[in-house]
TrEMBL record:
Protein name: Uncharacterized protein
Length: 29
């Protein structure tokens, strides 16, 4: 349970980070 929960959080965090990075890159350009 804990493992699955942590895994889900990690995936969500990665997605959010990726989106933020992409946005930042676009803003720079």
């Amino acid at each position: 349970m804990l493992s699955g929960r942590g895994r889900k959080t990690s995936a969500e965090k990665a997605t959010l980070l990726f989106g933020a990075l992409r946005r930042y890159r676009l803003a720079l350009e």
